[in-house]
Amino acid sequence: RIVFVVTTNGNNITKSIGHLPPSAKLVYKVLESGEQLTQKDLIRETALPSRTVRYALDRLRDENILVERHY
User: Fold this and answer.
1) In this predicted model, what pLDDT tens digit does every residue of 18-62 receive, in sequence order?
2) 7, 52, 58, 65: which could form a disulfide with 48 (CB 3.0–4.6 Å)?
3) Which DSSP symbol is given to 8?
4) What is the secondary structure of 10-69 as a DSSP string?
């Protein structure tokens, strides 16, 4: 099982994600709560299609805003 966690504490995050697509911002906001969520959880919480969630996760990972943890 893979879970996703935000790596930043919110400082200057607006600048960091300002250029990202709305889907990535939404996924970030859901993860910002501090919960460790799976991709399936994120799809359910955001009501976004799975492909869109994968793309958002990739973009956030590329920006070093989140990490994957394997359990």
Assistant:
1) 899 999 999 999 998 888 899 999 999 999 999 999 999 999 999
2) 52
3) S
4) STTHHHHHTTS-HHHHHHHHHHTT---B-HHHHHHHH---HHHHHHHHHHHHHTTSEEEE
Of 11, 7, 10, 5, which is closest to residue 68 (Cα–Cα)? Answer: 5
pLDDT value at 10 more than 80 = no
User: CA 3 → CA 14, 35, 36, 51, distances in Å?
Assistant: 23, 9, 6, 17
Compute CA 62 distance to the chain's CA centroid, rounded to the nearest angstrom: 11
**pTM for the predicted model, two decimal places:** 0.85
| Rounded Cα–Cα distance for residues 71 and 69 (Å) | 6
Cα of 49 vs its chain's centroid, Å:
14
DSSP state of 7: -
